[in-house]
Design a protein that fits this description.
CATH architecture of the largest domain: Alpha-Beta Barrel
Helix content: 25-40%
CATH superfamily of the largest domain: Enolase-like C-terminal domain
Largest sheet: 7 strands, parallel
Structural class: alpha/beta
Amino acid sequence: MRLRKLTLREIHLRLLAPFQTSFGTTDLRRILLVEADIDGIAAWGESTAGENPFYCYETVETAWHILRDYLWPMLRGREIAAAADVWDLLAPVRGHHMAKAALETAFWDAEAKQKNLPLAKLLGGTREEIPCGVSIGIQPTAGELIAKVEKALADGYQRIKIKIKPGLDAAPVRALREKFPGIRLMVDANSAYRLEDAPLLKQLDSFHLMMIEQPLGCDDIFSHAELQRQLETPICLDECIHNVDDARAAIELGACQIINIKLGRVGGHTSARRMHDLCQAKSIPVWCGGMLESGIGRAHNIAMSSLPNFALPGDVAASRRYWQEDIIEPEVEVSSRGTIRVPSAPGIGYAPRLDRIESLTQRREVLE
């Protein structure tokens, strides 16, 4: 495979409702899309970098810079045997996984289309449908939170995740448990707490949560190991885990019992598969986290989630949960059972709506 041309686009998509986490509120997503011409095949990827450097250091601006000035020169016109080789070819650039993932996943889309295979099959996926959960941002009142959870349950979602932060943790969880005693419920702190908050976090044990996601520092595996020894609730790591070596360290130290795999955070499908395989060998279940992706990123998440150790419902929700109108057709839909059908068409299995993408494009750069 040879990369002939690379088109970078920034599109703006407004969320149906603001999404609040411990580090801020998002109502408009700036999304960097990658369209790669690989041997005449139009292949697509998406950078999940945010508008600001709060989830991680990467932003739309840094990803654009790294893609244009470093990753494109490394791969342009180079003969590449398989998409699985791209991750190692980009290794000289340290970090910048969200920029790398945008290009690396496009190569996977291209190879699957070349071979006339669904991307899920090329990756080694075994599922025909994936279980879905939903992520609900911090709400102003318990009543508004309960109403959103009721709506998500009515839509069929199998698991509810709520965002928490200091001062808004035990009380909203208690309100949900009183209203919905039997639901699969988890919380996500996005690194909002410190190890000294262990007594407060231990209060959550009484609510029988599936997990507490990333309670402590984004690079502090060691303190998570100490916290996990004090909690009955399983810890799930997200921001701490950037590659298979981080996952191995966290598992061996006892820092978590579950790992969230996000394509952008780990650098694409090859890194995600390595992490998946390690966790499967160590009996650590994984699930797919969401980054408010457009349909392009969502399609890649669906393919990845078809791998066998994605045993827990992920954050891959329906398009209409976040957007008035997505940029793919058909849009991603969730069944009444809370599942998404893995597409059978070649590549990512969804067709980018070029007219819609064009109308949303704020800037474009063509490299060839």
